[in-house]
Amino acid sequence: MAVLSPPGAARRRSLRVRLLISGAVAAVTAAGVAVVMPAASAAESTLGAAAAQSGRYFGTAIAASRLSNSTYSTIAAREFNMITAENEMKPDATEPNRGQFTFSAGDQIYNWATQRGLKVRGHTLAWHAQQPGWMQNLSGSTLRQAMIDHINGVMAHYKGKLAAWDVVNEAFEENGSRRNSNLQRTGNDWIEAAFRAARTADPSVKLCYNDYNIENWSYAKTQGVYNMIRDFKSRGVPIDCVGLQTHFTGGSSLPGNFQTTLSSFAALGVDVALTEVDVTNSSTSQYAGLTQACLNVPRCIGITVWGVRDSDSWRSSESPLLFDGNGNKKAAYTSVLNALNSAGPSNPTTPPPTTTPPPSGNGTRIVGAQSGRCIDVPGATQNNGTRVQLYDCNGQSNQSWTLTSSKQLTVYGSRCLDAAGSANGSAVQIYSCNGQTNQQWNVNSNGTITGVQSGRCLDVWGTGNGQQVQLYDCNGQANQRFSLS
């Protein structure tokens, strides 16, 4: 989110720009997005569970100060499976004095979420707004170093714990040029420097660029961001995802080409996510349309609404969320839930694992219940430290595992499935067998595989080929269930 509530003058100008944009784009009825409504009996009764069926998340932004409100916290824990801190992980909150970090408020949200089996997105590391006063007074190379130091300090604290970070936020003007911020004035490569620093600080977390008014494919700002991402991917700059804030205002602000925007970014080789969704008057058609557009793009990994109830929103006077001020579900909630349930299980065209013959010999496939794909060693390498991934089952030796009497899962006869750590997000890799507890696994009757050392489950972020396997708190969802066959 760009500002604290109430929003400042800069944000009010952004809203007026959005209203102008909304008048120039088509309503959802002209968007070419087919909104499928299932039967009244939904497959799942909460947003998070319904999204998880197709390998996605449905999240919300949380304010630590509101967690003591039982209505607020009950809805948040029940309905969502991804949490973003509204303001508690931003630069002014985490480094109020240079070199002096504080994480109490951010940790309050992180602990609340993970104790309930919910994942957490980090927001945000480098941004022209909500900088602490000491940072606002810096410039040039001194500011550049302060930005990198801030990224290192915050990411070190949350290393291995978060699903994603919004590394850079709102760095473009409406005309597609770079925003003339103090960070931009350190040099045009500042965004690249931020992402490279972030990858070094935490190699396992997804790194995202986040912005508003990039939903309309024909808009100059969208093209500016797109060109940057394309350049980054062509040069190997580490970036994993693009967040489209999706603050829709006015009666027709869901662009007719919204799905084109999502698929065009995804075609560059990044995931896309709707990160700060709110819609004027909770338009049912717009909420259903944006949800369906995400569902229609395989690399659209999830949706986050910016707040729980209308009364919690920075746009509270516009009634923009899925729950009213009393915590009651609105019509828009039902439209979103129906759209999520219409997607059903992920990869419906993938044959169930039992239709593929198991490999010959003593080896066993480890097949994801959600994806139908096998745990695979990329490139059939035997190098220590190679992270394992999901991939189409093929019966080859790099997908052939043996569960030993000492609870090891071995591949190639001499390499063990190995946890590189014990925290949430720790990499799962192959390594020479050594008999230690980070190479021992409990294969449980509910389909989960838990580390003896960590007690955490094997977990995958998505369902596609190449999705990496990690450890995460067990939550019983399909992305943590596997069969040995």
TrEMBL record:
It is an enzyme of class 3 (hydrolase). InterPro entries: GH, GH10, GH10_dom, Ricin_B-like_lectins, Ricin_B_lectin. Residues 348-360 have a biased composition (Pro residues). Residues 340-362 are annotated as: Disordered. Keywords: Carbohydrate metabolism, Glycosidase, Hydrolase, Polysaccharide degradation, Signal, Xylan degradation. Its EC number is 3.2.1.8. PROSITE patterns: GH10_2, RICIN_B_LECTIN. It catalyses: Endohydrolysis of (1->4)-beta-D-xylosidic linkages in xylans. The keyword Kinase does not apply. Belongs to the glycosyl hydrolase 10 (cellulase F) family. This is Beta-xylanase. It comes from Paractinoplanes pyxinae.
